[in-house]
């Protein structure tokens, strides 16, 4: 069967292909191969500048040609490497052979070609490539999260002064404002984004088991650790890990994926809350011409974007959690279980992006129904019990909590009920007046200020 968006096994390459398109240039097989070529090329150029007796310093032309292999890398280039892999059954060795083929016509580069992959194990190339991919992927992901965060902040400010009834345990509780609820999520997401950005992305280039064995037997006089560190940090823009086995142990990946899971969980929590508020009528959704909510119930406008976001972020978190728990585990100096798992980095990021896209669409459709919010609040005068009993405590009225509990718990309370109770309290006139003027809509504490500070 011909491969297309309609025959793709994964919805990331089918139904959601357009939403994940930007990730193909970062996490696809071709992108992975391109990153490997980049690492091999920079390693060779660095070796040529290291004053090794058997390797001449490459000319500017030679360096430009090698870097051109990266800049001009195409899907066809990747296919050529995959064709070599059919014989080698080893993808990194196929990259090495491909580079040697590409330079074979050039006398200078052909002489240097045996120093391609010099002293390296496959993981020296792979771990740095994964680090480069994750560094770029993180930038894309954080940019998406920052866009969502900006929308949350805008909603916090727009609706900062709109009072609403809280519900703790699903029951009526002290009022807040619509904007303050958006501000809460905005601040949580802000911290989560900072956690993602704070993760240091590591890489190693230290040979078969992390000790520079091959390097030092060939050139014992050279400081290979300093050399490798310079390549990783100055040429590739990563942070050097000094102590590893054959693989970079992936602890930073676990830290990064856990941080992304935290951000996704915050958004998943938001999805569920907004879903509930739409159900209560607090928000309406903008209609889209021609869109159908139900195949049998014409009136329905379902919160499908928030449902899709919740579902896809759940898949993303399942994958990211597995990656975080599995990747730091390797038998002895290495096993191959990380290799096949790491091929799913793009899948995990892909489901993040599908979830973020759905949430973004949903947020763009929301319209606040202030009348419904106000009606809900006006039917919950019992929430003033907290305010009244707290003032009673201040002025030493006996058993304030118990009195308000007897008055309000499980009962329908009206403004008249509240006013009658307050009028009989033995408290200063000023305090009594303040309580008499209080309504559920004005009992919001510092909610407006807190919302505007987000």
TrEMBL record:
Pfam families noted in UniProt: ASL_C, Lyase_1
Give the matching NCBIfam families. Answer: PRK09285.1 (NF006764), purB (TIGR00928)
**Its function?**
Catalyzes two reactions in de novo purine nucleotide biosynthesis. Catalyzes the breakdown of 5-aminoimidazole- (N-succinylocarboxamide) ribotide (SAICAR or 2-[5-amino-1-(5-phospho-beta-D-ribosyl)imidazole-4-carboxamido]succinate) to 5-aminoimidazole-4-carboxamide ribotide (AICAR or 5-amino-1-(5-phospho-beta-D-ribosyl)imidazole-4-carboxamide) and fumarate, and of adenylosuccinate (ADS or N(6)-(1,2-dicarboxyethyl)-AMP) to adenosine monophosphate (AMP) and fumarate.
Q: Start and end of every Adenylosuccinate lyase PurB C-terminal domain?
A: 330-444
Q: Which catalytic reaction applies to this protein?
A: (2S)-2-[5-amino-1-(5-phospho-beta-D-ribosyl)imidazole-4-carboxamido]succinate = 5-amino-1-(5-phospho-beta-D-ribosyl)imidazole-4-carboxamide + fumarate; N(6)-(1,2-dicarboxyethyl)-AMP = fumarate + AMP
Q: Which class of enzymes does this protein belong to? A: lyase
Q: Which domain of life is it from?
A: Bacteria
Q: Which family does it belong to?
A: Belongs to the lyase 1 family. Adenylosuccinate lyase subfamily.
Q: Which gene encodes it?
A: purB
Q: Which organism is it from?
A: Parasutterella secunda
Q: Please give the name of this protein.
A: Adenylosuccinate lyase
Give the Fumarate lyase N-terminal domain ranges.
14-311
A single MF term (Gene Ontology): lyase activity
- Sorted UniProt keywords: Lyase, Purine biosynthesis
Q: What is its EC number?
A: 4.3.2.2
Q: Its pathway?
A: Purine metabolism; IMP biosynthesis via de novo pathway; 5-amino-1-(5-phospho-D-ribosyl)imidazole-4-carboxamide from 5-amino-1-(5-phospho-D-ribosyl)imidazole-4-carboxylate: step 2/2; Purine metabolism; AMP biosynthesis via de novo pathway; AMP from IMP: step 2/2
Task: Spell out the InterPro entries in the cross-references.
Answer: Fumarase/histidase_N (IPR024083), Fumarate_lyase_CS (IPR020557), Fumarate_lyase_fam (IPR000362), Fumarate_lyase_N (IPR022761), L-Aspartase-like (IPR008948), Pur_lyase (IPR004769), PurB_bact (IPR047136), PurB_C (IPR013539)
């Amino acid at each position: 069967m011909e491969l297309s968006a309609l025959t793709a096994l994964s919805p990331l390459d089918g139904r959601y292909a357009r939403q994940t398109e930007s990730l193909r240039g970062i996490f696809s097989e071709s992108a992975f191969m391109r990153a490997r070529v980049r690492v091999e090329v920079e390693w060779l150029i660095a070796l040529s500048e290291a004053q090794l007796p058997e390797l001449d310093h490459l000319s500017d032309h030679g360096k430009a040609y090698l870097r051109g292999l990266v800049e001009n890398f195409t899907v066809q280039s990747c296919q050529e490497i995959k064709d070599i892999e059919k014989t080698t059954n080893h993808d990194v060795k196929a990259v090495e052979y491909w580079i040697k083929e590409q330079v074979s016509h050039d006398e200078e580069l052909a002489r240097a070609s045996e120093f391609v992959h010099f002293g390296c194990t496959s993981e020296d190339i792979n771990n740095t490539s994964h680090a480069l991919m994750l560094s770029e992927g993180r930038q894309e992901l954080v940019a998406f999260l920052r866009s969502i965060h900006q929308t949350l902040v805008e909603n916090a400010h727009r609706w900062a002064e709109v009072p609403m009834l809280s519900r703790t345990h699903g029951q009526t509780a002290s009022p807040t404002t619509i904007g303050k609820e958006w501000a809460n999520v905005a601040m949580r997401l802000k911290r989560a984004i900072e956690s993602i950005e704070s993760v240091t992305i590591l890489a190693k280039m230290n040979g078969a088991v992390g000790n520079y064995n091959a390097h030092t037997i060939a050139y014992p006089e050279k400081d290979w650790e300093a050399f490798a560190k310079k390549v990783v940090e100055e040429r590739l823009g990563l942070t050097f890990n000094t102590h590893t086995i054959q693989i970079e142990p992936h602890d930073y990946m676990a830290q990064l994926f856990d941080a992304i899971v935290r951000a996704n969980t915050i958004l998943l929590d938001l999805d569920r809350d907004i879903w509930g508020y739409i159900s209560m009528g607090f928000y309406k959704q903008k209609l889209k011409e021609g869109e159908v909510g139900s195949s049998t119930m014409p009136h329905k406008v379902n919160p499908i974007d928030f449902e899709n976001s919740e579902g896809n972020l759940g898949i993303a978190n399942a994958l990211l959690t597995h990656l975080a728990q599995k990747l730091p585990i390797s038998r002895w100096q290495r096993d191959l279980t990380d290799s096949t798992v790491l091929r799913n980095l793009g899948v995990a990021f892909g489901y993040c992006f599908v979830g973020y896209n759905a949430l973004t669409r949903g947020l763009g459709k929301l319209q606040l129904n202030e009348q419904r919010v106000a009606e809900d609040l006006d039917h919950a005068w019992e929430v003033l019990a907290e305010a009244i009993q707290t003032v009673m405590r201040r002025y030493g009225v006996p058993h304030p909590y118990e009195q308000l509990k007897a008055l309000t718990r499980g009962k329908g309370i009206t403004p008249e009920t509240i006013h009658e109770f307050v009028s009989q309290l033995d408290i200063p006139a000023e305090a009594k007046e303040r309580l008499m003027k209080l309504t559920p809509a004005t009992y919001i504490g510092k909610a407006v200020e807190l919302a505007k500070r987000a």
